[in-house]
Amino acid sequence: MNIGVIGVGKLGEFHTKLLTEIAQDCRDLHCAGVFDLDSHRAEEMAAKYRVASFSSLEVLAKSCDAAIIATTTSSHYEIARILLGEGLHLFIEKPITTTVEEADELIRLEAKNRVHIQVGHIERFNPALRAVEAHIGRPLYIQAERLSGFSRRVTDVSVVLDLMIHDIDLVLSLIPSEIKHISASGVKVFSNELDMATARIDFVNGATANVTASRLSRIKMRKLRFFAITRKAMLRSTLQRANQKFSSSSNRVKLLQKIRSNPLLHVKYLNSSEKFTRPCRGWFLTILTRKFQK
């Protein structure tokens, strides 16, 4: 399969790098080349990763079976529409489009042309989340925080579509229920779109999720906290980026050092509770389980 990359900014270069590395071990996969409106950038990346630099979308489409769209969100729809018409399978960086109507149209074109679209909601495959999934019973409450510094690279969409969408996707995948009510608020600061936002999502089954996202933070934070009921216990777990900066005197630094030094699962008994701390490729995961009395 020949795969092309459209848009070779920060994410596009990342995809190109991974494709060329995977292609070394997979004979059926080949990174055919890249395309970018900035021809100098396209040629630079093509030379760096030893692939072709295409002069247009149409030329790329003739040479590829599939494509990765890693351009600005506002351009996703037009690019995807053209490539779907050419019969290419697509991987589209999140969010798929800026509007629901555009997304629905791409889904219609996907079915019409008998191809496949995948959207880059990669957090579902986060190793930390995979580690905790086995322990999650029925989530009662989820609290998500996703904070980042301001970047002019992504200002064509709001922080909801830029950052919060990751946690919205996770919440919807973890809570098997219809949404009952949503309340949300946000503010614009440095761009024409929302730069900070918070939302409360109430579900029909009684579960609740509070989701916060900001691209104006002085620190970068990724945290997801669960409270859930299993058959025998109530579970509380926290997923947090291991590279988050804490003060040197913080006990959390000591915990992080312990996790990094020992790749095994740590088990501590705290009264009637069990506490698990496990390293997960750049994240650390803490699970506190309180057993029900017999």
Structure overview:
The protein is an alpha/beta fold and 294 residues long. The chain has 2 domains: 119 residues, Rossmann fold, CATH 3.40.50; 169 residues, 2-Layer Sandwich (Dihydrodipicolinate Reductase, domain 2). It contains 8 helices and 15 strands. It has a 9-stranded mixed β-sheet, with helices on both faces. A 6-stranded parallel β-sheet has the order 3-2-1-4-5-6, sandwiched between helices. Helix 4 runs parallel beside helix 5. The protein is globular and about 50 Å long. The N and C termini lie far apart (57 Å). The C terminus is likely disordered.
Q: How many DSSP E strands?
A: 15
- Report how far apart the termini are: 57 Å
Tell the overall outline: globular
Please state how the strands of the largest beta sheet are arranged side by side: 8-9-10-7-11-12-15-14-13
Give the amount of beta strand, in percent: 25-35%
Protein topology:
Elements: E1 2-6, H1 10-25, E2 30-35, H2 39-49, E3 52-53, H3 57-63, E4 66-69, H4 76-85, E5 89-92, H5 100-112, E6 117-119, H6 127-133, E7 138-147, H7 159-174, E8 179-187, E9 196-203, E10 208-214, E11 221-229, E12 233-241, H8 251-261, E13 266-270, E14 273-279, E15 283-291
Parallel strand pairs: 1-2, 1-4, 2-3, 4-5, 5-6, 7-10
Antiparallel strand pairs: 7-11, 8-9, 9-10, 11-12, 12-15, 13-14, 14-15
Helix pairs in contact: 4-5
